[in-house]
Amino acid sequence: MTAQDPILFDRNENRFGPAPACMDVLRQADAELMFNYTRAFQQGNYSDLSVRLGLRHGVDEKRIILGYGCEDILKEAVHYFLKPGRTILIPSASWWYYTAIANEVEGITVQFPLIEQPTTYTFDVDALIGMKDEHDPGMVLIASPNNPTGNALSREDLLRVLEAYRDTPVLLDQAYFGLVPGEDDDFSQLTDSYLNLLILRTFSKLYALAGMRIGYGIIGEGMGWFQKFCGRNLGYNRLSEKLALAALDSVEYYTDIARRMADDRAAFTRLLRSYEGCRVFDSAANFLLVRFPDEVAPVLKEALDRQGLMVKFFQEPGFLGYARISLGTDPENARLREAIGQAWPAVSRRAAAGGEVA
User: Does the global pTM surpass 0.70?
Assistant: First the structure.
């Protein structure tokens, strides 16, 4: 990357990069990792990584599914559980890909409400539970933390949903888990009690391995056939396994990243909430959702674009004036805050006058 390259605050990637131990894996990789299939089966296991993840989450290795990113397992789950003409319930503001996958199997997507509060979004759990009788869904999908709103579902509310939908596959997408310092309750033990619960995790966000496409799922006891559906006879990508294991061993490195991201979320929040008419929503992810005054958003976007600071300003109905700021490194975040601070007086004046940034 050169000084002239744009800085991508519009992609939910971890720009800190992976732990040094992961880079050591690449530098020291043995050719045997590439020309031999896994030998984990000789110990009665699927893979070294699934064994490690089973121990990490306190579940049997056979309840760990490995995939090409959690996107892979998400797609497999929807294709497996959602039958043509059946309904899948998803959050009202969420990743567009959920609907796209449901459309592939001729499923019907119905949204349950997210409620916009002054400083956060919340899931309308009462409404979600109330939709069971009306829609008889074939699947329920919850993203926590949710993209782009950043809010997470509490254990108490998740338990309410799981009780209401005991006989329905519930997919909990936790791709952004771990970005809050001290966060250690990932709900994986709930798969012991709720047999139709599938939890998705990824190495793309916290662990900064998005390009390596490493994801996994933790399944309830009642999803054995789905585990067979997802199984790969010849094993998993062995180099990806080594990278993931190195990441899991690098606790101190990623703890520091989560702390630094929390500090930068707080710094952006303080700055943006100081501007009249600007609302910042609390986030447990590596991004912040911001609502700018409608007339300010397009003018600010132009000002930032000219400096190569690429922030995602939404164009979808209902989200005009909103922007999602994905966190960069400490210097990149400081540069964006400085640019916003310098541009804001002129941007707000010109927006009010209907003008453009000079």
Answer: yes
